[in-house]
Amino acid sequence: MSGTAVAPEQEQQEQKANPQPEDSCEEKFHKVLAAFLNRGFKINNDVYLEMIVSHLSGKHDEDYRKFIKSAEVFRWLETMLQQWESDRPPASDIGAFTLQLLALIVENEWDFARIQSGSQMLDRFQECIVRNDGKLQNASIKLGHVLVLKAISRHAMGMSWIKQSGSWRICLDYYNGYQTIYITRETSLFIDEVLERFCAMGDYEEVQAIVRTILSPLIDCVWKSPEQDDAVLVNDDRSQKIITPLLSLMQTLFRRIIERGKRTRVAYYILYTYKFERNLWKFTDTMHDHTYLAKIWQTHIFANCARLCTMEIPPDDPMAAVDLTFDRYTINFLNYVNFSIRRGNVQNVMLMAETHHALWRILGDRAPEEVVLKNQSIRFGDQILLLQLFPVLYEMHTLVGNQLPDYVEKFCTKLYDIACEFTIRLIYACRDIFQAYNLNVTELACKSIQGIVTTHKLPRARAVIAFQAFVYVLKEFLPDMCCPSVDGQKERANGTDGKTSLILSKPNLLSAIINGLITLIEGYNITWKECIESTAVVNFMLNLLTNPNLPPRLVVLALKLTQISIEHFLAPNLALLMDNIAGTGLEYVGRIIYKRLHDLSWEARDSALELLASVVIISEIKFPAFQKHILECDIVAVVESAAKNDTEAYVRASALRCLTLMVKIR
C-alpha cells in the first residue's frame, strides 16, 4: 500500500524536476483545427470561433496573422473541403469558421493564387455552397461566402475570378432572398465595391451586366398582368416582394456613390442607360399602399441626389446626358411632396424631408445655400423645415383656438416671410387633408418633432425656429398663471384642471416637445440673445411640475429640462445683477425639488436629486443666492434621509453625491 502511494509522488517530483515544454500558440491552434475535423466535435458557443477569427485577423497582435500562412492550415483546408464534398458535410458553425478563415487567407493575392493552383479550392467550396441539397444553405454559411468574395475583390486576380465564376450573381440571389441583416449589409457592400473596381479597371461591359441584372425586375415590368398584355397588377404582393430588395440595394448604392464624392460610370448606367427613374415611375403608378410608397419616394430622392454631381458621362454618350440642376432637383422634390399629399398621405412628406436632410448633409459643400425658382431665391432647407413643422403648428393652432396671441401671430409672420409660394400651397393642401380626413395630427406632430431633432447639423437659424415652435406648443400645456403656488384651490381657479386633461390626453406630444427642447439646447447651445423664448423654459417647467397629475415619465423629462435650462440660460455674471431670487421664477425651484423628492416614482426622486446637484454646483460657481434658497426649503434633511433610507440604490447614490457637493461649500 505504501509503495503504491509513493509512486505518484515520485512521478510528480520528476515532472517538476524535468518539466515538459508547453505547446506554442501556433501548435495549440493546429490542435484546435484538428479537433474541428472530428465529425463528433460540438461547439457550445460560437463566440469562441469569433474570437479565434478575430485574433487571426491581426487585430490584437500582428504575429497571429502568420499562423494562417502555414502549410498545416492549407492541408487542413484541403481535408475540410473533402468533408464538404462528402455526403456528411460539417456542422454549420464549423463550415462558417472555415469560410471566415479562408477569407483571411485569400485577402492576399499570392495566397489566393496558392489556394487556386492545382485544386481550384475556391471553385469547389462555392460549388458545395450552391448545391441544391440544402445542407450548406444556412445563414452563417452564406455570410461566410460573402466575406470570402469581399476579401478576394481587393486584388486583380480575385476580380478576374469573380467575373469568370459569376459569383456576384450568387450574391444578388442572396440579397433578393430576404436574408438576415448581416448578409444583406455585407452583400450590398460587396456589390458596390465590385462595381467600383470594375469601373476602375475599365471593364464597363461587366458593370453594365451587373447593373442590368440588378434592375431587371423594373426593366422587365414584373407588375404586368400575365393574362392581358396591357393590364397591370395594382398593389400586387408578388411585385412588391420582388422590387423591395431592389429599392433597398439602390438606396445603398446611391448613398455610397454620393458619400465617395467622385463621378462614376455606375450612376450613369443606372440613371440613363437603363432609365431607372422612368421605370420606377411606371411601378409607382401601380402602387396605392402608403407604406410602400414611402420607400419609393425615398428611392426617387436618392436617385435625384445622385444625378446632381456623381455621373461620369462617357465622351461618346449617345443620350446627351447632363447633370441634374439644383433648381430642377428642388422642383422634383416638391412634386413628390405634392403627389403624396394628393394621395392623402402627409406622413410620407415627413419621411421625404428626413431623407433629404440626410443626403443634403452628405453633399456638404457641393449643395448651394440658395436655389432660384421663378426668379426668386429661396433657401430650400427652410422650405423643408416648414413642411416638417406644419403638423406641430397645426396642433398648436388647435390648442390655441381662433384667437391667436400676438407672439404666435408674429412667429407665423416670420415663417411666412421665409416661405416660397410653392411651400405655402403645399401647406394649405396639408391643412385640407387634415380637415377632410380627420387625421391623427398629434401622432404626426410627434414624428415630425422626432425627425427635426434627429437631423444632424441643422443650420443654427433653423434650429432656433424649431426651438421657438416647440416652446409655443409647450406653453399651451400650462395654466395661465406664471408659476402657481401649492394651493390646490388657486390652481383650479386658474384652469389647471383643464390643462391636466390636455396632458393626460396628449402625453406623447408633451414628451416629444420636452425631448426636442432638450436635444436642441444640448446640440446647439441656444442662447437668450438669439431666442428670447429660451428665458421662459425654466418657468414653464416649474409650472408644469406643480401639476400633481403629471405622469412619472413626464416628471423625469421636465426635471431634466429644468436642469439643462438652468445650466445653459443663467448668465455667468448673475451674482453681480442680483443677490436673491425673490420675485423670479427661480424662487420655486426649491419647493419643486422638495416636492419631487417625496415622489412615489424612484426615477422622479433621482431626477430631482440630479437637478439639486446642478443647482448646488451653480450656487458655488456663480450664484450664491441658491445656497440660502436651498437651506430655507429644508432640502438638506430630506437628502440626508434619502441617502440613508431610500429603497432604490440609484437614489441613495445620487443623494450621497448631493451631500458631497454641499459639504464642499463653506
Number of helices: 34
- Characterize the biggest β-sheet: 2 strands, antiparallel
| Strand count | 2
Distance between the termini: 79 Å
Rounded Rg: 33 Å
Strand order, largest beta sheet = 1-2
Which percent band covers the strand fraction? under 5%
Poorly predicted ranges: 1-6, 486-494
Output mean pLDDT.
85
Roughly how much helix do the residues carry, as a percent range? 55-70%
Q: Name the CATH class of the domain at 23-165.
A: Mainly Alpha
What is the CATH architecture descriptor of the domain at 23-165?
A: Alpha Horseshoe
What is the 3D shape? globular
CATH topology-level name of the domain at 23-165: Leucine-rich Repeat Variant
SS class: mainly alpha
Care to give the gist of this entry?
The chain has 666 residues and is an all-alpha fold. Helix content is 69%, strand content 1%.
In words, what does this structure look like?
- The chain has helices at residues 2-17, 25-36, 47-56, 71-85, 92-106, 109-116, 121-130, 139-152, 156-165, 167-176, 181-201, 204-219, 237-260, 265-273, 276-284, 290-309, 326-342, 347-363, 380-400, 406-418, 421-437, 441-453, 460-475, 488-493, 496-505, 507-524, 537-545, 552-569, 574-577, 589-596, 602-621, 625-632, 635-645, 649-664; strands at residues 371-373, 376-378.
- It is an all-alpha fold and 666 residues long.
- Helix 8 (139-152) packs parallel to helix 11 (181-201).
- The protein is globular, with a radius of gyration of 33 Å.
- The termini are far apart.
- It is found in: Cytoplasm.
- Residues 1-24 are annotated as: Disordered.
- Keywords: Cytoplasm.
